[in-house]
Write a structure and sequence with these properties.
With about 300 residues, the chain is an all-alpha fold. The chain has one domain (about 10-250). The chain is built from eleven helices and no strands.
Length: about 300
């Protein structure tokens, strides 16, 4: 059977997604255990580290609840436009699946960049950045809107003619690749790999609160997007993880809700209704007194 020409049913592709996701989670848990053992051997493992890991998985459970509630809306929106509004209806074969993963990776770059660039996006995405540690459990640290934030970026791919199931599969593959990058056990890889692919080194930069690392390296699989769009930074200085100001808590609810809590306080203190709305779409840190700058 030629895997590039063979036609695949959308639900068969969904089954692949479930199988790959389940096995990846098992591997991720083994890697997490190795990371914790490594910290213990180095005497860097603390109760705060363990509490942070627990908080990460608590936000994952909340994320899964949101997915369960919103899945119908997410898929429904895709299937609403797919049969009647797509430019074409592409076959599900190896070529279209590979092309869709590439497009989903580009979509992820812009979804990720927008999440850093507008108030409501940062309110949910700051949860992922708020850990002062960096291990694979941090990849499972999700914010309240993470499950639905990608929909506007995936709909254009459906409009191009890709089956919604293929789009969801592709988006999941990008996310799983990104998950594997959350580790300090891997240093810099060979130059040719670092030049093209996103790597643990590149993604450590993305999690850094060092001034030169902030809002850099948004990529999912291919780091070339950052190089093309001017957001790339090498890992040189030791990375300081977390957000400024730090949340200093391993309470799962504090971790999960702190971004929207800060945004809500800022909006509540603003007397102008127009400016209240602007806080949702302006960059984090924007105030009416600060000269507005383009993203």
């Amino acid at each position: 059977m030629n895997i590039w020409e063979h036609l695949y049913d959308g639900w068969q592709i969904y089954e692949w997604e479930l199988i790959i996701g389940d096995w990846f989670f098992v591997v991720a848990m083994v890697l997490l255990l190795m990371e914790l053992i490594r910290l213990a051997v180095r005497r860097d493992l603390t109760w705060n580290t363990i509490g942070d890991v627990v908080a990460n998985f608590a936000t994952l459970l909340l994320h899964l609840v949101v997915i369960a509630v919103s899945a119908g809306v997410y898929l429904g929106a895709m299937y609403l436009i797919y049969p009647d509004y797509s430019l074409t209806m592409l076959p599900n074969n190896g070529f279209t699946i590979a092309a869709c993963i590439l497009l989903a990776d580009l979509a992820y770059y812009w979804e990720h960049r927008v999440a850093h660039s507008i108030g409501i996006g940062w309110a949910t995405h700051t949860v992922h950045h708020s850990s002062p540690y960096y291990n694979i459990s941090v990849a499972y640290r999700h914010g309240p809107l993470d499950a639905v934030f990608g929909l506007p970026f995936h709909l254009p791919i459906v409009l191009m003619g890709f089956d919604p199931m293929v789009v969801l599969f592709s988006a999941t593959m990008v996310q799983l690749y990104q998950t594997a990058l959350h580790t300090e056990m891997v240093g810099k890889l060979p130059r040719m790999i670092e030049a093209v692919l996103n790597t643990p080194s590149h993604h450590r930069v993305h999690h850094g609160s060092n001034p030169q690392y902030i809002d850099k390296n948004y990529a999912g699989i291919l780091i070339i997007w950052d190089k093309m769009f001017g957001s790339f930074e090498q890992e040189n200085e030791k990375v300081v993880y977390g957000v400024v100001p730090a949340i200093n808590s391993v309470n799962p609810l504090v971790v999960y809700l702190h971004g929207f809590g800060r945004l809500a306080k800022t909006i509540a203190a603003e007397p102008s209704f127009a400016n209240k709305l602007k806080y949702l779409i302006k960059p984090p840190g924007w105030t009416p007194a600060v000269k507005e700058e383009s993203l």
